[in-house]
Amino acid sequence: MNLIKSIDIFCAVVDHFGDIGVCWRLSRQLAVEHKISVRLFVDDLESAKAIIPEDRCGVEVSYWAKCLDYQAAADVVIEAFGCHLPDQVVAAMCAKRSVWIDLEYLSAEDWVKTCHAIPSYHPSTGLTKTLFFPGFEMGTGGVIRENDVILYRNAFLGDRKGQDFWRTSHSVPEISDNCLDISLFSYQTAPVGQFIESLKNFDQPVRIFRPGREARQSVERVGSVEIYDIPFLSQVDYDYLLWTCDLNFVRGEDSFVRAQLAGKPFVWNIYVQDEGAHLVKLSAFLQKISCFYDEISFERLANLHDLWNEGGQILTKQGQDTWVKALHSLPGLKSGARNWSDYLCDQVDLSTQLLEFAKVQITRT
Ligand code: TRH
Question: Residues 196, 262: contact at Cβ < 8 Å?
Fold first, then answer.
């Protein structure tokens, strides 16, 4: 018997597309794969428009305004990233005895395992609220991964014609064995100019594909580097872009996870937090993946992350050298990225873990 029939997800957009990106991806998976009735409440329709396609796959998307029409709560209510549920929602949850989950941000830090999925009693309501932490290892909530994503990825990678067809339908030129293809999604602070400059004299032509909300289709040339500004893709098509490139620059949380699942070399532009908290997070992640790479490739990857996120303040100041060296290590970076992706795919995905946890909570009440 399916104990969980309905889930509400509340998403307050802090900025950019990651909050809604994660919430939409999870909503969609819960509705499509787990056949759950999902309502997604989001407070920023502009960001939502960028991410949520017209076909909502059965998910009911509502605008979370100050006065919210919320009569009955779902079996499970997910408060994404501690977004603070309105009193009215909590009251409806009390009436229903809903399972209350605060879905937190992803981190590779060790403390995540000790804080994940520990229910805490909420004295004023009598409800139990649980912090649910995504993560990269057993004992954490895992990462969002659709059931069939790796199947689709592998089929796409084995189908060159299919890749070319996808590329030409999305303003991306066909595969050329001679060219190095890079996707680029980063924050303003990343040293993009320095990176492109250092590629000008690289021993292989480089093509950079840069999806953007404002991007109109255009191509700029800098030496032997071609930069394609392409329209912002759907989440599904963004996966295809990551799969078809040789190297992916990603950021935040959701594109970062997708790049890992792509099994292609990637560089993460981490979201900056107060007091350098992001640097601790970055270093925990690099430490976690290090054993999946050979020593030299990993060292170059770490240098690249340092340069991309901190302007080389921690490890190296030799920007030019670092980029080119890393690109020469692509075969090593590729096998490391694939090892890491295989490891991630051996873990239970986040939606399954979340449902298992919620079922246990429901049977206890
Ligand atoms: O956009 P991001 O920087 O988002 C976030 C949020 O800002 C959040 O506040 C912060 O806490 C978090 O980062 C860490 O990066 P992210 O998480 O990668 O989200 C981008 C989303 O956009 C993701 O779902 C992938 C999607 N996307 C597309 O669908 N098409 C595209 O063409 C691109 C480039 C991305």
Answer: no
Among the four given CATH numbers 1.10.3470, 3.40.50, 3.30.1050, 3.30.420, the one describing domain 6-144+347-357: 3.40.50
pLDDT tens column, 15-47? 999 999 999 999 999 999 999 999 999 999 999
Q: At what angle do helices 254-262 and 149-157 cross, to 10 degrees?
A: 50
The model carries a pTM of 0.97
Are 265 and 247 in contact, with CB atoms under 8 Å apart? Answer: yes
Right CATH number for 149-345 from 3.40.930.10, 3.40.50.2000, 3.40.50.1100, 3.40.50.720? 3.40.50.2000
The sign one gets for the Cα dihedral 238, 240, 241, 242 is: positive
117: left (phi over 0), alpha (psi -120 to 50) or beta: left
Q: From the CA of 20, how far away is ligand 1's center (Å)?
A: 8
Decide: 251 in ligand 1 pocket, CB within 6 A: yes
Cβ of 185 below 6 Å from ligand 1: yes
Under DSSP, the state recorded for 264 is: S
pLDDT in tens, 298-336: 999 999 999 999 876 665 556 668 889 999 999 999 999
Catalytic residue at 253? Answer: yes
